[in-house]
Fold this sequence. Notes:
Oligomer: single chain
Number of helices: 10
Radius of gyration: 17 Å
Number of strands: 8
Structural class: alpha/beta
Helix content: 40-55%
Distance between the termini: 5 Å
Strand order of the largest sheet: 1-2-3-4-5-6-7-8
Strand content: 5-15%
Amino acid sequence: MNTQNIELLAAYWTVAGDIYPMGPTEVSPFSFKDRVEAAAKAGFKGMGFVHGGLMLNVDELGYEQMREILRQNGIQHIELEFLVDWYQIGERRRQSNKVRRELLEAAKSLGARAIKVGPGIGEDIANVELMARELKQLAQEAAEHNTSIVLEIMPFSNIRTIGTALSIIEATNEPNAGLLLDIWHLSRGGISYDEIANIPPHFIKSIELNDADRYPIQPLWQDTIHRRRLPGEGYLDVPSFIKAVQATGYNGPWGLEVLSEVQRKLPLDKMANDAFKATIAQFD
Length: 284
């Protein structure tokens, strides 16, 4: 396969260093400039940024300088994360709304293509009507900030099937609201790649690649934040996943999200280079 037109996006955790979601800190030990330069030098055309570290970067550098660093390094595709509790009430919603406002402002200021939103992690049943109504409002706000909303399917959440995810996105009925398909979440959730063909192409807004061992450690949350592997270094059939996505006509950037207790301890340049080489090889 010709990889000339394939553009890869390094999701935040892929080049963030020795940190992980909901750990003691989610702020990268590497500077914004160093991470952008390392990702660009490796070959990435896009990057992801997590709210906490992003806001610290904004305080230190300001949006204008951040935009210039991204421009100088040819980083064209930006994704921001991770908004949760966007359909809740009370204190959880109050905290979510603060993150929401800041991510929307950042998306507009940095020209982000999408904001990643999470399902109800640890929840069993999705209230489709409620979630669709709230997601519609969120998508409309995102449109005002020139960005999209991508909803992630997760096996340890209330949105763990393509059917549930589609029922919410279809009811949301906003052109900038769609799905994020991560090979790890689909595979660990027992979702066949064949099911991707059932998703209307315009609902597929973002893709993430990685790999995994044949058997997960438990609880599954520990497997996802510590034991992912670079594409081609595990048990998952990454090329088949790619082909299933390409068959829908998807032509956006391909994200790489690797949360690995081994990979995250490497020097930054090696971390970025290894990640890019392993991923682009899956398209060859």
